[in-house]
Hints:
72 residues; mainly alpha; single chain
Amino acid sequence: MPPRISRKRPKPLDEAASLIRDSIRAHIPDAIAELARLARDANSEAARISAINALIDRAYGGLKDLNDGDDS
Length: 72
């Protein structure tokens, strides 16, 4: 019996996930711009705060990472 040749082919779900990821990534610059606009111009204070938090989370991974633990 001849040895088996392993050929890794992408699974259909992997290909679909990759296409979805690429499609979402194409819209990221517009989404960031809209968050910045909302942070500046939204009528609702809650909407402004939410947009600001989203921008900070994406830029810095959240403020908890910036805190060195020293409260003094």
